[in-house]
């Protein structure tokens, strides 16, 4: 996708006139290899030929605004009320982000009040006007030790006007939306209404996705925890299949449209023979189809391990077009389908398989963040707070090539991050599994 510098400009509510609590600390800071000053920018691309292809001076190639504290801020902290909402599916680290935001706003900016809206955007609907909770330091003290979100979450559409009314009733000046692509679309609808009503409310997003399917972010928070947890299940079916005469282990992992968890977890264990992801179609039948390849592998090695992302092979299943409350496609169960088809095939050819099938999806996304993700979450939380207090709106904070930056909200929903079948990650998977680039197609 080709971007121009102007596509990457983030919106501000207005001039920053209040001293930031970080003003003194920032007074001598300049850009260094370890710090990007607030008036510097971070390049989108990092490859020489791509940078040259823009054909413009370096300060005009696409770049992001650096995240971080500003010397001057837009909101007067003493008069500022902040809201937080978590939406969509669970993801490790949600509580860390909530806690990080509350700590930063309380201990440094000393804002007037922080409220949490319960159960996602539902908590901003008209009939949920009492479902706010005060987020104090006490309220968030140990929440990072638990998975899930203390605020609850939900799917399903809400009326954006009602949501803006709720912000006004609770006198919210800044709203943090922690959620995935759908949540960011919801947040943009909210911003439209805020603009139409000429309100002075900042809406800042912290992108969340267990599937790692949001663009302009190195890896989304919670992703590392998720694939690390997934490795336990792959290791289990590996051991089970090893102990059986004709052992087949199958693990289905989350990944609606993007197979990152499957790829990373499989590479981590490095014992999978087939990794099946939505980005790479495969066929079952024929001499080079999956069934024949599984049979051959079993005959040669006595054991097969398959890691399948939930969105893989959907074209092989009958789909009734059902949607969830947010309008996302309800997927067919590729894991159970493969388990049945592989069992039938191997039984037919007399191999009497022992098939172990695990679907640990919710067991993976509901855990607390690991130490790496906790660090990542707290740093995203800090970046989000600094962005909002400086008046940024319709903006999300992400880490891109190790730098924390601001991205216009529309860009994060513009396309999906997916495993590139021509890229080096998939190449590593092919190297590790020994599976062919395509089969049965
Ligand atoms: N196009 C849209 N316009 C307005 N609101 C939306 C839109 N898509 C989703 N939303 C709202 O955003 C919230 C979360 O959306 P969704 O359930 O799709 O999860 P998500 O944020 O994409 O997270 P994930 O995919 O990681 O579970 C829901 O309340 C949903 O109604
Ligand atoms: O069952 P739920 O809660 O709708 O969520 C399932 C989906 O949410 C995700 O975790 C995030 O989009 C997907 O991987 C999965 O398909
Ligand atoms: Mg989504």
From TrEMBL:
Its EC number is 2.7.1.11. Mg(2+) binds at residue 181. The keyword Phosphoprotein does not apply. GO terms for molecular function: 6-phosphofructokinase activity. ATP binds at residues 89, 155-156, 180-183. Its cofactor is Mg(2+). The active site is at residue 211. It catalyses: beta-D-fructose 6-phosphate + ATP = beta-D-fructose 1,6-bisphosphate + ADP + H(+). Its main location: cytoplasm. Pathway: Carbohydrate degradation; glycolysis; D-glyceraldehyde 3-phosphate and glycerone phosphate from D-glucose: step 3/4. InterPro entries: ATP_PFK (IPR022953), PFKA (IPR050929), Phosphofructokinase_dom (IPR000023), PKF_sf (IPR035966), PyroP-dep_PFK_TP0108 (IPR012004). Substrate binds at residues 209-211, 254-256, 310, 362-365. This is ATP-dependent 6-phosphofructokinase. It comes from Actinomycetospora endophytica. The gene is pfkA.
């Amino acid at each position: 996708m080709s971007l121009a510098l102007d596509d990457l400009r983030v919106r501000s509510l207005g001039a920053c006139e209040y001293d930031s609590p970080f003003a003194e600390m920032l007074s001598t800071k300049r850009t260094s290899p370890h710090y990007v000053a607030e008036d510097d920018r971070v390049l989108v691309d990092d490859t020489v030929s791509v940078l040259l292809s823009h054909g413009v001076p370096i300060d005009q190639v696409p770049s992001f605004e650096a995240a971080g504290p500003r010397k001057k801020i837009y909101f007067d902290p003493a008069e500022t009320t902040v809201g937080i909402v978590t939406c969509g599916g669970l993801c490790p680290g949600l509580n860390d982000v909530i806690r990080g935001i509350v700590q930063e706003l309380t201990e440094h900016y000393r804002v007037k009040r922080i409220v949490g809206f319960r159960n996602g955007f539902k908590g901003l609907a008209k009939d949920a006007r009492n479902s706010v909770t005060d987020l104090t330091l006490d309220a968030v003290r140990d929440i990072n030790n638990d998975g899930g979100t203390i605020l609850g979450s939900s799917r399903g559409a809400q009326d954006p006007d009602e949501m803006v009314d709720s912000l006004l009733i609770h006198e919210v000046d800044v709203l943090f939306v922690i959620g995935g692509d759908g949540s960011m679309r919801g947040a943009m609808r909210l911003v439209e209404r805020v603009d139409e009503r000429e309100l002075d409310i900042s809406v800042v997003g912290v992108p969340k996705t267990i599937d790692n399917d949001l663009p302009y972010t190195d890896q989304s928070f919670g992703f590392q925890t998720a694939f690390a947890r997934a490795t336990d299940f792959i290791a289990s079916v590996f051991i089970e299949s090893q102990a059986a005469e004709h052992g087949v282990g199958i693990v289905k992992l989350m990944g609606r449209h993007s197979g990152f968890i499957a790829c990373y977890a499989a590479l981590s264990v490095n014992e999978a023979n087939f990794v099946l992801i939505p980005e790479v179609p495969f066929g079952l039948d024929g001499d080079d189809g999956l069934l024949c390849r599984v049979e051959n592998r079993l005959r040669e090695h006595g054991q097969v391990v398959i890691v399948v992302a939930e969105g893989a092979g959907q074209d092989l299943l009958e789909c009734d077009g059902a949607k969830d409350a947010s309008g996302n496609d309800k997927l067919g169960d590729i894991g159970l389908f493969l388990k049945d088809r592989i069992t039938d095939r191997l039984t037919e050819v007399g191999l009497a398989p022992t098939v172990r099938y695990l679907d640990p999806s919710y067991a993976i996304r509901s855990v607390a963040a690991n130490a790496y993700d906790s660090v990542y979450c707290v740093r995203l939380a800090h970046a989000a707070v600094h962005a909002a207090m400086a008046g940024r709106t319709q903006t999300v904070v992400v880490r891109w090539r190790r730098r924390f930056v601001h991205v216009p909200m529309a860009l994060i929903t513009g396309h999906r991050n997916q495993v590139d079948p021509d890229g080096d990650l998939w190449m590593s998977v092919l190297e590790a599994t020994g599976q062919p680039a395509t089969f049965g197609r």
